[in-house]
Amino acid sequence: MDTMAVVSSMLAAQQGALQSNIAATLMKQNADAEKSAVLTILGAGQPSLANVGAGVGGNLNIQA
User: Fold this and answer.
1) pLDDT tens-digit profile of 47-56?
2) How far apart (Å, rounded) are the C-alpha atoms in residues 28 and 4?
3) 55, 57, 37: which is closest to 47 by C-alpha?
């Protein structure tokens, strides 16, 4: 095997590793975007009343 063949194969391997890293990054970003969309649909960003005092939100006066 001559020197140019070795250099060429090493460059091809580096290029393949770079493409794999880019693909992994894009897949993670897509997964994060999907997770965000699902959480938005489920209303996970809504504030919770679990830690408020007793009686808060219990009585609602709807007379105008």
Assistant:
1) 666 777 777 7
2) 36
3) 57
pLDDT digits (tens, 9 = 90+) for 12-25: 999 999 999 999 99
Q: Distance between CA 31 and CA 7 in Å, rounded?
A: 36
SS3 assignment for 15-51:
HHHHHHHHHHHHHHHHHHHHHHHHHHHHCCCCCCCCC
Separation between Cα atoms, residue 60 and residue 49, nearest integer Å:
15
Cα–Cα distance measured from residue 45 to residue 37, given in angstroms and rounded to the nearest whole number: 11
C-alpha–C-alpha distance, residues 12 and 18, integer Å: 10
- Which pTM does this prediction carry? 0.55
